[in-house]
Amino acid sequence: MKIRMILLSLIAALCYAGMANASELRVVVVQTADVPGYVKAIAEGQALLRSKGSAAILRVWVARYAGPEAGSIIVSVEYPSLEALAKDDTALHNDPDLKAWQAGLAKMRKIVSDSIYEELKP
């Protein structure tokens, strides 16, 4: 239930911040002992994804006002479409560079939650 509140708060913040072209949002809650190193690894991954033609936008968040969940680390990945998400998913499973990046992340974190949200538009 607590993680759900963090996710809802993050989604509200992203909407307020203006996910300009995003229609799909992947939200990954992680535990890591090395937050600065993890943030750096995500930034490196963003550059790597861009070099591979990805449209994804990665952001790292920390839960500030979340009761006992304060300090939780959340990674949001914004996509313009399900097709873009599927393309990245395929690349993450097949591209050697992306697989190596993910292996490095796996050594730094434990995934607590991994969800995909679709924006509802009027």
Strand and helix layout:
Layout: H1 2-17, E1 24-32, H2 35-51, E2 57-62, E3 73-79, H3 82-94, H4 96-108, E4 109-118
Helix pairs in contact: 2-4, 3-4
Give a short account of the largest sheet: 4 strands, antiparallel
Class by SSE composition:
alpha+beta
- Overall morphology: globular
How many strands in all? 4
Secondary-structure element series: HEHEEHHE
Major sheet strand order: 2-3-1-4
Specify the number of helices: 4
Give the rounded overall mean pLDDT: 87
Report the uncertain regions: 7-19
Strand content: 25-35%
Please compute the radius of gyration using only Cα atoms. Answer: 14 Å
Terminal Cα span:
28 Å
Q: How helical, in percent, are the residues?
A: 40-55%
Could you describe the 3D structure shown?
The protein has 122 residues and is of the alpha+beta class. The protein contains four helices and four strands; from the N terminus they run H-E-H-E-E-H-H-E. It has a four-stranded antiparallel sheet, sandwiched between helices. Helix 2 packs antiparallel against helix 4 and helix 3 (82-94) crosses helix 4 (96-108). The longest helix has 17 residues, at 35-51. The radius of gyration is 14 Å and the shape is globular. Mean pLDDT is 87; it is low at 7-19.
Keywords:
122 residues; alpha+beta; four-stranded antiparallel beta sheet
